[in-house]
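User: My instructor asked us to take a sequence, write out its structure as tokens, and then describe one feature of it. I'm not sure where to start. Here is the sequence I was given:
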Amino acid sequence: MLASTLITKPPLTIRHIINMSVGFFGIQFAFGLQNANTSRIFQTLGAKIEDIPILWIAAPLTGLIVQPVIGHFSDKTWMGKWGRRRPYFMAGAVLASLALFVFPNVYALWMAAVLLWLLDASINISMEPFRAFVGDMLPDEQRTTGFAMQSFFIGVGAVISSILPYALTRFGVATEAAPGIIPDSVKFSFYIGAVTFLAAVTYTVFTTQEYSPAELKSFGLIEDEPLLHVHIKTPAAAFIKKGGGWGAAGVFLSVLLFIYNESAKNPLEKELYVLTGGIFVFGLFQLVAGLFVKRESKNGFVEVMDDLNFLPPVMKKLAVVQFFSWFALFAMWINSTPALAQHLYHTTDAASGEYNRIGNWVGVLFAWYNGFAALFAFLLPLLAKTLSRAAAHAIALAAGGLGLISFYLFNNENYLIISMAGVGFAWSSILAMPYAMLTKALPQKKMGIYMGIFNFFIVLPQILAATLLGMFTKHLFGGNAIFTIVLGGCSMFIAAMLSVFTLKEKQQA
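Assistant: Let's start with the prediction itself. The structure tokens for your sequence are:
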């Protein structure tokens, strides 16, 4: 198509941007319940404080697997009036709502771990296409606004969901239960979340329309080729060589860890096998992709592995910033309740009144940081226009680092609301700025798959946190989880510095 015949993608009204973002209210409602209550559920069912990080590994692993798969298929999908992204919004919402109803009724720790896998996988089915949706629908000059609007609805959804158990207790719903039983305040919160998730996503599905493949071609954003066309750039030999290297490294590290643990007086945690095994599996995937290419068999799996080898330069730089940002967030999410119960009330007894009160208060604190995030969402487009997206992101991340470190400094639970202001500023930017910078650098026809791959750099630090933070808490910090949150603050500062020195960008909205 000649350049002179291309049509410019039109800007959308604020009403349209709101409609396409409402679904994220439901998605974050579910994530808010999960983040604020899962550690509490695990400990109620008998988990030790040092075991909580590895139990949380379900969340990042499901994202690692589900998001690129859904991204790939949503890029290739067109279901008439249902579009390419919205079918996945709806399917994920139905599955997640069912999981939310079941999760708080489990009575064994292994059941809770399984339900976390199912819940997180279902949420990811809905969430992944929402990121690509903004890239599909909005011109670049509106994308900061689009992602900031998502941040606003994420903040509002998380505020309400995080505060629900605390609010329900004010209406007489029980916040304490017999040992091994999940309190009614948590159960009813999950039921409300199930209905909210489904309703919010359904609203977006029925109030938005997507650009057809023909319209995207008229904008010059995708080539005139079939949706299912697959082009592989990595030769079979390169796949096999890379796979052999990573696979051998995974086996070597696993054997080294096994030998050390068999002979050492203080063996390292078995959770480290998750990391060494992950390295091996990555190598195995590369080998399998190489075999497919050698046999001239092209499929979605091969395309994902191929795209991993050809990441856009901007994406590589953002990936490192994301890594340290999300390591910090995961340290906060999985440790806040046990760390604050231990730091402020000197208890690790999940059945005690003090522990459950601080568990409810953590929900309130999470509501505060998400509330702050919703407010900062209105500031971000202005800050990005005045400075740049990269500079605005660095300022927000530095504020988040200060907020996490102040967990240790404050000895009054009410002062932690101040900490949440910094965390909320960082959270608002993490949800908006990297995606606004990234979508400009991505080809439209691969928006979904690259957004899914970008999620690797959210998931990998979470897997690392899940495998290492328990060990750090136990061995480096003497079982004192508050220092693990301080470590998260330091990680957030590293992300801020990387944003300053590696992400060069002109001023833009």
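For the description part of your assignment, you could build on this observation: The mean pLDDT is 83. Try explaining in your own words what that tells you about the chain.
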